[in-house]
Amino acid sequence: MEKAKQFLESSEDEANRVSQLVIHPHRVGHECSFYEDFALRGIRVDRVDPGLVSCTFTVPPRLTDKSGKLATGAIANLVDEVGGAVVHVEGLPMNVSVDMSISFLSAAKVHDELEITSKVLGRKGGYAGTVVLVKNKLTGELIAEGRHSLFGKLPSKM
To answer: Which residue ranges run through the membrane (predicted)?
Structure first.
């Protein structure tokens, strides 16, 4: 229990850095939210085809853990966002994640360039399944594989 407590405690330097963050109120539709700016800034969409989204992302220091590797929570966030983007229909609300499973196979370090590819596995009514691969773009090494299922409104037939 003591090891878990030590792992979760932040250092004085980390606490000071967090206390200096300035978070302005979000104006919906006019600017990025804190979440979008912090977690998603830097994703570059390279290709969009029906059932496929391919992106590039360079690992920023802000999303690394204490060992300098891309945090598993940041990988989960990328799987969620890119997996959701591939099934999004313009004009409809975003789909809701139903289930997500991620296999963490390797690690990405700060400044590594990643390729994130999401493909639709299938659709049934408002339910869709996707697979998201996160690879090191330089070496081709697979960092993570995510399976993501989502539910959303169907487009109107009218």
So the answer is: none
pLDDT at 106: 96
Question: Which distant-in-sequence residues (6+ apart) come within 8 Å of 43 by Cβ?
Answer: 55, 56, 57, 78, 81, 82, 116
Higher model confidence: residue 80 or residue 154?
80
For the chain, domains (ranges, CATH) are 43-151 (3.10.129.10)
Q: What is the pLDDT of residue 69?
A: 95
Q: For residue 148, what are the contacts with CB-CB under 8 A and spacing of at least 6?
A: 79, 80, 83, 84, 97, 99, 100, 118, 129, 130, 131, 132
Q: How confident is the model at residue 29 (pLDDT cuts 50, 70, 90)?
A: low
